[in-house]
Design brief:
Elements (H helix, E strand, L loop, with lengths): L2 H7 L4 H12 L2 H8 L3 H15 L4 E4 L2 E4 L1 H22 L12 E6 L1 H18 L4 E6 L8 H6 L3 E5 L9 E9 L1 E6 L3 H5 L4 H6 L1 E5 L11 H8 L5 E6 L5 H5 L6 E4 H11 L1 E5 L7 E8 L6 H18 L12
Parallel strand pairs: 3-4, 3-5, 8-9
Antiparallel strand pairs: 1-2, 5-12, 6-12, 7-10, 7-11
Helix pairs in contact: 2-3, 2-4, 2-5, 3-4, 6-13
Protein name: HTH-type transcriptional regulator LeuO
Keywords: DNA-binding, Transcription, Transcription regulation
Organism: Pseudonocardia autotrophica (Amycolata autotrophica)
Amino acid sequence: MTAPTARLANLDLNLLVSLRELLRERNVTRAAARIGISQPAASAALSRLRRHFDDELLARRPGGYVLTPLAAQLVDQVEGVCSAAERLFDTGHRFDPATARRGFTLLVADYTIAVLGPALSSALAARAPGVELRLRLVRESFSADIGETIRLIDGMIAPHAIRFERPELRSTGLFSDRWVCVVDASHPSAAAGALTLDELAAMPWVVPFAPDRGMSASAPMTRQLNRLGLEPEIRVRVESYLSVPYLVVGTDRVALLQERLARQVADRLGLAVLACPGEPGPIAERLWWHSDLDADPAHRWFRDLIVEVAGTVEQCPLSRHYLSGR
């Protein structure tokens, strides 16, 4: 037996489940309830994990536990390994969504959650009440080894990118969107109903996923700004699409935003949604998955459900006219 194999054989793989729930809950009692074991058994598992990693993992602080730096590094790894193990042992079995007890993990942007999340969540609750949906937020700077990243989860929802053109990856179209400009409703451009490229170049900006120096060439927003020939004066940088409109309202700032998201928040926040001048590229969201999952009946059911739900989004046409705010 080779050294890595011997090491794996000597591990209690039940500790993986304990580790996942302890890191999720940051509470021994709640983790025990999630797993279906006693609180002393969960405490014993935590002790064994602490010895194995030579780290506290959960550090006691006033008001509860917090993750240690090592534990924070383990969060995504253990989620991926547990998801892969579930798929491995489910392979070849008939999948009945009405009685299934398993989880599906998707890597998504918070924008996608706003647009697709409610309908997907409702469909899962109605058709597969025992299924757990795990949504991990994509970061624009996530691992360059996208093939390995997707192999450990059930899929990712994102527009096409050159780095996704790999033989082991599969994809299918979901829904379309387009970029619009958002400004506060009191901004002079709201009354004018339009912005020019020169005006955009002179305005302060809110930009998601922009590094402190320069602009990340992999970020969709950056590609659009480059396409428009803009080098914006960035006043606010944020790691979220959903945060953008809240950082525009009540200011003289401007931002690019996906229209489907802008329409959700514009009236409530008092924002104006204006056509983007120039020729911004379209947005075409796709579901990406690893080819290893092609033969998994549970995964086929899950991705068919996502495509079906996305179809209801696509049926809501994009506006011909843009809101002018209040």
